[in-house]
Write a structure and sequence with these properties.
The protein is 38% helix and 20% strand. By secondary structure, the chain is α+β, with helices and mostly antiparallel strands. The mean pLDDT is 93. Bound molecules: adenosine-5'-triphosphate (ATP) and magnesium ion.
Length: 431
């Protein structure tokens, strides 16, 4: 056993029955994006490294130390995508989706970051993201936030906080930057090592420091919100008004800056206290400068990304109900003739009931063994076919779940003629 392969550290398999939760999440996401007119974009996993260093920012955790970057056989530097926004802008520019247009897009899929694996933090993880292009006003900020709120609610998640901040215009940020550097210099000796290093290259990122001591010092730091330019202030006020109109509560957090460089004006996060240090399940904001930074013409943009694993951890922690995917029926057979009849009946029932989940026993076995498999499969009933039943064109029905309280409750055991089987099976599920 010692030389069995194991998955790469931080890269996880998702197994049944967990995959049923993932499928449910994707179904809910598909419906929610459709409810707002967002179209799905599917993007490759691999991009040129420069796409990320130029967009996310050289002095960010992601670009400094988290990317899976390698030289391919032609000597080109490629990177497994650490996030989706830069890829989405790249694709939008490449296919002419952004110039003088409005676009509402969404994506889902794996992202890769070389971080220390722990609960809610992996090296391959999955994001669900929305991006809206070509709309400059706070109404679209409101729309993407309302969309995220609806998605979280439809997933059955509770007790999430919407944290909100505005980073203002790039001019306002530049002015604030110098004020912040002044402040940080006065406290330099007490800052953590990362923050000392970032103080000059990217001081705003210090606000996002995970060091409690640095956070303590930052209590008295000048606030970005006090340095906002008039237009950004107005934009931010209108967004807050819109959130109130929709009955979406939020908490202003002047230290919320996000870990990527391309954000300006609105930034937000959905956070929970139920997942320890990995409490952010969704994060986003406005990034009006990114399209020009990547070579396109000026295009306003706003979006967000959810961490799917964190959503699922929270769904489990909050005991969210997920639609059952266990089979409705497990079909047992005894003898050669019954085996052939079972295969035929199984196909016939699936033809008649597209929503039916039916397992036909395979690999033989005594009746007791087959019923054990039936029970393990989670099926509600076992159907049993033997020579006697075939001769009489009947089938035995055995209830496997005695906790069943549905109106069409199934008696312990009964015998049905084949002519009634289809109608009986239809009563087992709602489809
Ligand atoms: P964190 O501060 O937790 O590292 P981040 O700011 O790096 O998060 P973003 O780049 O904004 O995260 O990604 C959006 C969301 O993707 C996060 O809010 C989180 O839910 C999820 N996410 C980010 N990194 C990971 C990871 N390594 N494993 C699992 N989920 C992640
Ligand atoms: Mg991170």
């Amino acid at each position: 056993m010692a030389n069995l392969f194991q998955s790469v550290r931080g890269f996880n398999d998702v197994l049944p029955p967990d995959t049923a939760i993932w499928q449910h999440l994707h179904r809910v996401a598909n419906e929610t994006f459709a409810a707002y007119g967002y179209g799905e974009i599917r993007l490759p996993l691999l991009e040129h490294t420069a796409l990320f260093s130029r967009s996310i920012g050289e002095v960010t955790d992601i670009v400094e130390k988290e990317m899976f970057t390698f030289l391919d056989r032609e000597g080109d530097s490629l990177t497994l995508r650490p996030e989706g926004t830069a890829c989405c802008v790249r694709a939008g520019l490449e296919h002419g989706l952004l110039h003088n247009q409005q676009q509402r897009l969404w994506y889902a899929g794996p992202m890769f970051r070389h971080e220390r694996p722990q609960a809610g933090r992996y090296r391959q993880f999955h994001q669900l993201g929305a991006e809206a292009y070509g709309m400059v006003g706070p109404d679209i900020d409101l729309e993407v936030i309302a969309l995220s709120a609806r998605l979280l609610a439809r997933l059955g998640l509770r007790d999430l906080t919407l944290e909100l901040n505005s980073l203002g215009s790039s001019e306002a940020r530049a002015a604030y930057r110098s004020a912040l550097i002044d402040f940080l210099q006065r406290h330099e000796s007490s800052l953590d090592a990362d923050s000392k290093r970032r103080m000059h290259s990217n001081p705003l990122r210090v606000l996002d420091s995970k060091s409690p001591q640095t956070q303590e010092i930052l209590r008295d730091a000048p606030k970005l919100i006090d340095a906002l330019d008039l237009e950004s202030r107005l934009h931010f006020e209108q967004l807050q008004q819109g959130l109130s109109d929709l009955g979406l509560p939020f908490r202003l957090n002047s230290r919320l800056v996000r870990g990527l460089d391309y954000y300006g004006r609105t930034v937000f996060e959905w956070t929970t206290t139920a997942l320890g240090a990995q409490g952010t399940v969704c994060a986003g904001g406005r990034y009006d400068g990114l399209v020009t930074q990547l070579g396109g013409s000026a295009t306003p943009a706003v979006g967000w990304a959810c961490g799917i694993e964190r959503l699922i951890l929270l769904m489990k922690a909050q005991g969210v109900a997920v639609p059952d995917t266990a089979p409705h029926v497990y079909l047992c057979w005894l003898g050669d003739a019954a085996q052939r009849e079972a295969a035929r009946l199984g196909e016939q029932l699936r033809d008649a009931h597209p929503g039916l989940r039916l397992v036909v026993n395979a690999g033989g076995g005594k009746l007791a063994a087959q019923l054990k498999r039936a029970d393990r499969s989670g099926a509600r009933v076992a159907l049993i076919l033997g020579d006697t039943e075939i001769a009489a064109r009947t089938i035995q029905v055995k209830s496997l779940r005695d906790t069943d309280t549905s109106p069409a409750s199934i008696p312990e055991q009964q015998i049905l003629p084949w002519s009634e089987l289809s109608g009986y099976v239809a009563g087992l599920f709602d489809a």
